[in-house]
Amino acid sequence: MLERYKDYLNDGLAPHYDYKRFYNRIPLFRYDTFKKAFDLFTEINGKVIVELGTIRSFVHGGLEGCNTDNILYWTPDKPQNWDWGAGMFSLMAVEEFFNKDVQIHTVDICRAHINRSQIITSKYSDKMNYHIQDSVLFLESWISSYKQKIDLLYLDTGDMTPIEPTALHQLNEARVVVENNILSDSGLILIDDVRNPTPIIIGNETNLLGKAKYSIPYLIENNFEIIMDEYQVLLRKK
Question: What are the structural domains, with CATH classification, of the chain?
Fold first, then answer.
């Protein structure tokens, strides 16, 4: 399924920055890390995907209607308009696994964002679970609420600027994952926007891990290994 969106997943990011200037290389973009994550999820016979930070716009930032509630801006038959700068993760996941025994949970603290996500993924609503909740509180209640482990966790909460509140929040998410042991054996964590240079350009940030400047070191210290280290970072529980 991802093949038909490959150019959008890559071109939504690749042209926007001189990545070599900041990272001494051009990283692989979301097509490659989504594909690897979905392949590994299949290998471990995964059943549960959780996305923290949902799809929040009908169109990308270069078009009128970005981050608005007007349903007229959602064009399901024109993927060139979709918000590829943000990745469209839950739609990619539910299209990939729509005919499998897989459930997807998407979490956002903003009701408007969840409403937009429901519209965008409405064709697959029987596979989707929508939660208006703080992501840390959601993770803390996961085991008691669902009595199962998460196989693929996608971390994408918060904004790129200011980066410090977002990075601290993601560290709290990672701590809950580790302390409550909510990932399955060989469970996966995919972190978005690790090599997004916006905080460096706008916020004079010196750390090169974006939203994940605290979470990645913490996860590595707590029995996770890096599988792919690109624009996104994919980790696996050892």
Answer: 2-237 (3.40.50.150)
